[in-house]
Amino acid sequence: MKRVVITGMGAITPIGNNVSTFWEALVAGRSGISVIDTIDVTALKTKIAGLVRNFDPEAVVGRKEARRMDRFCHLAIGAAAEALSESGLLADDSADRTRIGVYIGSGVGGLQTLLDNYKTLLERGPGRVSPSLVPMMIANMAAAQVSILNGLKGPVLAPVTACASGNNAIGEAFKLIQRGGADAVVAGGAEATITDLALAGFINSGAMSTWDGEPEKASRPFDKGRSGFVAAEGAGILVLESLEHALRRGAPILAELIGYGASSDAYHMVATDPEGDGAYRAMKEALDDAGIGPEHIDTINAHATGTDIGDVSETKAIKRLFGERAYEIPISAGKSVTGHMLGAAGGVEAVALVKTIQEGVIPPTINLHEPDPECDLDYVPNIARKVPVTTGLSNSFGFGGHNAVLVLRKFDEE
């Protein structure tokens, strides 16, 4: 099995439109949650979200092409461009593009495009619906557009596993490269669902926060006062390569991906298993896949959305896997800062874990002032912590009971 390394990263998020800006804000604990001003939220109980600001898709793909894509594609293409630039993968014509794949997941796809065209259907009739509706709307199109724009002719896949989509995309790309099916894969997730329809649905499901105080204080994983997740949009993309391919071309090696685990709760359409059984099994499988034990994990990037059951069940799963050592492991909940980017969360949080390994700094879980008594682990409250990190775990769990976990390690050529 080939070793797989990360040679490039890209991020478009509510706290920054490139990796360096995103990381600086994440470590500083500067929230990206604000009042929604992109749509009319007068009738909604939720009026806040994590919005990507000052991102110009036309600067990335041009005006004509941008108009033929949904926003989730814009975000994916922007993040992929940064990741590819850093990796230098396409810097010359020697790259065999038939051996480079694209695995980018999305939980929902082009929801805004669907809503816009449904309004057109009702107001102006079927003859005015865009012929580009379906190819703009379908959830595989972020992966497809990154492939088309960059001439990448290897396998292309778009996992749709709700909030686990980004981690599943990265994990499946990892396995593809391991078994020799590709030399490199552009992998991650993208999401843009800040629409009145999606927000209304999430609110009525009981999963979304209806916090009416300062927006920056709304996302409160593990805190006793948490009231649900805060929606966000964004994209996080990695360039994965086989080690031999990366070394052959002198690529920058940022970290190594060494394990991947996936499971299903088989429990409920929306609610997580309250005992965290599926999360436990995915984490254990990821460690087994990496060939390491729980004692080797230095930090955990928690899924930690801020829902009542979700945060408790993840805590239980961590305790079950790590035993007493669970209390010694610093755990970070990045969604406290960014909000929940749904299908993009895994990709963005993988970027955060790579930076954590590189910098030896664990981002804080902000807004954690009165921990839930059932959430009694070390969640690095409110202030970043400088700690040497060699190996970390990143969790993503989604509606439907999907669980996907990655294990990343500092690169050592030996």
TrEMBL record:
Keyword Transferase in record: yes
EC number, as in UniProt: 2.3.1.179
Gene Ontology CC terms, in alphabetical order: cytosol
Domain of life (superkingdom): Bacteria
InterPro entries reported in the protein's UniProt record: 3-oxoacyl-ACP_synth-2, Beta-ketoacyl_synthase, Ketoacyl_synth_AS, Ketoacyl_synth_C, Ketoacyl_synth_N, PKS_Beta-ketoAc_synthase_dom, Thiolase-like
Active site: 163 (for beta-ketoacyl synthase activity)
Name this polypeptide is given: 3-oxoacyl-[acyl-carrier-protein] synthase 2
